[in-house]
Amino acid sequence: MKKLVLTGAAGRLGSYLREPLTQLCDELVSTDIADDIGTLYAGESYMSGDLASMDDMMRVLDGADMVVHMGAYADEGPFEKLLGPNFVGAYNIWEASHRLGLKRVIYGSSIHAVGMHPKSDFIDTNVAHRPDTFYGLAKCFAEDLGSLYWDKHGLESVHMRILSCAQVTSPRALGSWLSYDDLIQLVTRCIDSPTVGFSVVYGVSDNDRAPVDNSQVNFLGYRPKDNAEQFAADILANAEPANPQDVGDMCHGGPFASVALGNSGMATMDIVDDTKKT
Amino acid sequence: MKKLVLTGAAGRLGSYLREPLTQLCDELVSTDIADDIGTLYAGESYMSGDLASMDDMMRVLDGADMVVHMGAYADEGPFEKLLGPNFVGAYNIWEASHRLGLKRVIYGSSIHAVGMHPKSDFIDTNVAHRPDTFYGLAKCFAEDLGSLYWDKHGLESVHMRILSCAQVTSPRALGSWLSYDDLIQLVTRCIDSPTVGFSVVYGVSDNDRAPVDNSQVNFLGYRPKDNAEQFAADILANAEPANPQDVGDMCHGGPFASVALGNSGMATMDIVDDTKKT
Amino acid sequence: MKKLVLTGAAGRLGSYLREPLTQLCDELVSTDIADDIGTLYAGESYMSGDLASMDDMMRVLDGADMVVHMGAYADEGPFEKLLGPNFVGAYNIWEASHRLGLKRVIYGSSIHAVGMHPKSDFIDTNVAHRPDTFYGLAKCFAEDLGSLYWDKHGLESVHMRILSCAQVTSPRALGSWLSYDDLIQLVTRCIDSPTVGFSVVYGVSDNDRAPVDNSQVNFLGYRPKDNAEQFAADILANAEPANPQDVGDMCHGGPFASVALGNSGMATMDIVDDTKKT
Amino acid sequence: MKKLVLTGAAGRLGSYLREPLTQLCDELVSTDIADDIGTLYAGESYMSGDLASMDDMMRVLDGADMVVHMGAYADEGPFEKLLGPNFVGAYNIWEASHRLGLKRVIYGSSIHAVGMHPKSDFIDTNVAHRPDTFYGLAKCFAEDLGSLYWDKHGLESVHMRILSCAQVTSPRALGSWLSYDDLIQLVTRCIDSPTVGFSVVYGVSDNDRAPVDNSQVNFLGYRPKDNAEQFAADILANAEPANPQDVGDMCHGGPFASVALGNSGMATMDIVDDTKKT
Amino acid sequence: MKKLVLTGAAGRLGSYLREPLTQLCDELVSTDIADDIGTLYAGESYMSGDLASMDDMMRVLDGADMVVHMGAYADEGPFEKLLGPNFVGAYNIWEASHRLGLKRVIYGSSIHAVGMHPKSDFIDTNVAHRPDTFYGLAKCFAEDLGSLYWDKHGLESVHMRILSCAQVTSPRALGSWLSYDDLIQLVTRCIDSPTVGFSVVYGVSDNDRAPVDNSQVNFLGYRPKDNAEQFAADILANAEPANPQDVGDMCHGGPFASVALGNSGMATMDIVDDTKKT
Amino acid sequence: MKKLVLTGAAGRLGSYLREPLTQLCDELVSTDIADDIGTLYAGESYMSGDLASMDDMMRVLDGADMVVHMGAYADEGPFEKLLGPNFVGAYNIWEASHRLGLKRVIYGSSIHAVGMHPKSDFIDTNVAHRPDTFYGLAKCFAEDLGSLYWDKHGLESVHMRILSCAQVTSPRALGSWLSYDDLIQLVTRCIDSPTVGFSVVYGVSDNDRAPVDNSQVNFLGYRPKDNAEQFAADILANAEPANPQDVGDMCHGGPFASVALGNSGMATMDIVDDTKKT
């Protein structure tokens, strides 16, 4: 591949992906809303751009083969706050990719698109949407958008429903953890698979307690190597007792399943991406 | 029921529903973007309002028990054109209904939320989304929104995926027709069912060739009475030969499955609702 | 068929079945725990017996071809109270039928064997057990018993999961009603079907709102004729508002889904069978 | 449609279809291995031909739009006996249809392609093959052939798995009966449906005891009108007791499920088609 | 966890679990029907009790957080013999646990609850019951009991359907073996999982030939480490030829699938638990 | 096992299996159409025979316990060319095995029996046939034949749907590769499993990108050890770009999915078996 674009490059996961992605292409264009993101890696350039602006996205994606779209407002918030970056931003990415002839979008979706399914359902990648937040609702929207552009324009996309790509600090994360190494493997498979059509894949490590089913997309070749069980003894020894009547303890979305809609008020959470807004 | 609101009351289907809905409540508030809609029925009042305005929707829904939400830009068009009435409009309806304590939203969804599924799949109401247009994408969005508000706020909704509520003029309509009488029965069931939670139901008559499966929502009691087979001999005698390689002939969405995304350019189509834009 | 036995013949449903069953055999032996049941029909004889006594059941079933087993304590109650008639009684019926060479057991099971499934699940006859009461738990036990005797001894059985065979007095019954005529048709099909192996069938009329799926046992030929929708207008006009957060309103078991375990304390309920205990 | 070909026109079912098919086309070409079939209907011509001869089939199908392929050795028999007419014959029909540009093959398949499935499985049209005889094996072969030519050449086909198109004389036929009128409706739908791709449909009337599931091909619009239950009282009163340990009583294939492979030795059976061999 | 109770502590599997369970709690109360069980482990105390006595179970479970319920008559036997310990005993455990406020029951269920399913069905944990013995019927009963108490009282339970926790001495055991180490891991996961609701899990090692599917309860984190394939060469070299017409060779229950109901007459079998009766 | 027969012993895969199979029996009879196959292994004898001749197959299989049937015309070709060796040949093998009392047929089937299923469907071993070539059609035929002889005669068979047992030279083979060692393990499991009934299993290594699902036949104990991912970097670096609109890139059958029916005209392909025709 010649040219690859990464959105949300200044965010938490985006920052982490920059260096590995430079290994997979001749030229990486990183983009975010900030004016700059500091020192660049070999093979990387930076272009500032607003996801909510079609002109910006047309400019940023010009000449690219694929885009890894991680940019978004990366927390639960009021619908009005997510409308621009998460909804319109996704539309701009797909429409610009289509106009410019890109081959594929690799999208940072989230478990929160299906977070209200009970954890006792071992959900596969064909399960119906069941968002837990406006944040998850925006992920549903982008997945449906990807389905539409594949069916109508032949634009491929893979939707990585990331569970928790962060330090393991809770019992839930023993099942939902995605290690950074496994994240990189996942993104690499999404890029190097010869064909993907429209696909959905869960972003989760090879945890003993992983509660989701990737078998439908076995052909992608994603085989995670890390396992959160290494942290189990410590985490469980210090955990608060769980409450089987609490949707946050019983549903795939975890804390997002019980959070107030539109206003998390939570200090920390296992969110996926993290576009810095200035 | 005391007070019911009907959005899109000036549209094609909305116009037809006004009189029957007055029979199901003490007070029907019809609303649309136009200044007035002419002569009112007994028990009906009219309030002008823009779906894209939260203030308008808060004003229109105030004091209501339920809302039948049929308002939308009722054709395929550019995403930008649908963003206000179809996406933001749906959000405003659900959020205002929640804030005001309504019990239920009855929504005019569409087969186009799943229109790219091949007709040889007898799709049920749990099938994954597969929109065929931006119009269908907006229906997917509203269905996910309904799921979210039910799970988080206990606000009930029924999503009527109407196939073709119009005169039977094509072979496809022999399967997809929804008669006006059956539409009224369907809306009535959506209103009088004691509980609906979050439900999806196909709006189609009892056609011999009906290609979709409502059995999952049998409990709603929707039992259509009309059958488009009465038109079959005439329609088939004069029909152009179908093309089994054409997605428009093979998929549930019909002409929307083969139309160009964002710009139908079609003179007539089997659309559901029809908010008059002035 | 020469000789047929009916247990629970003094109960509510048993009483109703006596006369029709005399039409299906040369000799009907009715049995219950009472000393007598009054005037007999032509072709009917009566034998008193206690379900919990193997000796009694061996005596009653001697020489019979099939047994229609409706006898049970017919309400929710303490486990200890149901242990004899509902659990041990079922064992005695199957074991005696096996020892005596009967061909088939037709069993009055109940929706309460699966009553905690949400009504939004259109449950078929293969769904896993999910009882709502000790009463339902006994039905689960008898179904498993029937499976065991079919697999190990070739003793056939049909398990009629009756929903509500009583007057329609609540919104729930609009879906769950089984008319007496349809009950008789159902029992007749269970008897005249050439083979049944081990089968489960829902006992429900052809209600518009019927929430369960008998398609897996289509081969039995049960095609109900009555429809509770005739009562809908009256019932719904006078019904209390339903509560979508109440398991009693949302689950198949209805009031048994929300009743206190082991002690109904309810004045009236839609129970199936009704062995008079003196 | 201009020109339609009917194979097996001298057989039992073929004979019955000749007149109705003349109503559906300008020109019907009937064919069989016999030299002539007597008096012709208006619009009908006859061409003698051997199914096992590609030359014959190329000659017979020339210029046709569709073919209704009912010709076959119509009973269980040694594999060697069926190889020509049933296997090679089917290949000749599909290959000649492809070479000559026909639009569609309507094929007289049979329940015997899936006859070893237990009747307690309500099999749908996607169930895996499970033939009960060499006769059924040939039906499996033709179905796979139809799938292949659709996928590779876009040649459409509908495979009518006929259950028992004959007088009702056994308890099994109470479920499996296909009336002649319903057969004609079925063939008509297979012809007039705008698109069929590759489809399988069970040929069975609207019997109360029908043991198979056509819902997957609802879009074809086949809605049988007859019901064998009208014969039930007589048939059941005089039937031998069934044996639940007998595969012939428990499997969809009925007597073919228990017949000796390759040599039926049965005087009468519920076979579908009946090419006269001279 | 502070206090844990183990029933059937004098039985074969119970004896093995005593020491490991002391590592998982501050205080382990072992119980069985015998007067004593000899030397105790650190942290362990012993209380004699009869499963069939509610008073005994109320006394034994008092103050506990969870109970590992392994006690039962541990072989096939007459129904009357199992009624007390296996049926009433299970009821007493759940009812006492509910009254005393325990959080969870971990139950020693068995493959014999579903043992008549053919081994060619890769059964998951949602499969319908299909017991192979009265022993298995009692396991079905306890599973339904666990479902009921979870739905009605929020009392959690995990039902470990153990296949064969014994030395590998037959070809069947190459698939069904559960090593002692894996048993301990399984029980540990059942205890340390933050929430389990009502769950079923197969107790089987990571055998190449394991015939059952635990994927639905992946969230429990049970990942067995042992593999009976290490014994395959020896076992297969000396095995009697299997008989594909024998239910014992073809069904999940193995020898219990072909044993006479109620009276095994077998010298050794792969049973789960083993309450010593004196 | 005493005596084992291997057909297609002169073919590519047959040649490879000869030596390992001598380890699994007292006497291996290798057969092919050639007069001789050169030097024999210890315990091996050779008999020339034509698959299309029943007499030859009766002679070759006489006295054997099982047969590994790999012989076939091992490429796509005209139907007429495959009719003898692939269709009639399979019939001869099964019929002769039945007449001679063999216990089991192990058959070299192929992914091409289901090759037109899209690779985004993770197909299991119960999926409906969907052949991609006449070659695949013959595999479908032999599978149905195996089902028939199991149901009617109790003759066991395992159908190994081999994906690509050849050097890894294309991106597709990263998923479809079956290593020689894994092939040997697979054939060994098919032979040493105590019972197999009628089973289908995919022949594929433990590739990260393996696109098919063997879980339904877990009981066979086939656990492949090799993984084509070791070749991924090289293969992908030099691969032509894939085309997501090409059935050859999107379907399980790979190049056979896009090849012209009946005449491959391809220089090399990933075919399974390879009977030398002289």
TrEMBL record, chains A, B, C, D, E, F:
The keyword NADP belongs to this UniProt entry's keyword annotation: yes
Pfam families per the UniProt record, alphabetical: Epimerase (PF01370)
UniProt cross-references to InterPro entries, sorted A to Z: Epimerase_deHydtase, NAD(P)-bd_dom_sf
SUPFAM superfamilies with a match to the protein in the record: NAD(P)-binding Rossmann-fold domains (SSF51735)
Transmembrane intervals: none
Keywords for this protein: Carbohydrate metabolism, NADP
Domain of life: Bacteria
Domain NAD-dependent epimerase/dehydratase: 5-162
This protein's name: NAD dependent epimerase/dehydratase family protein
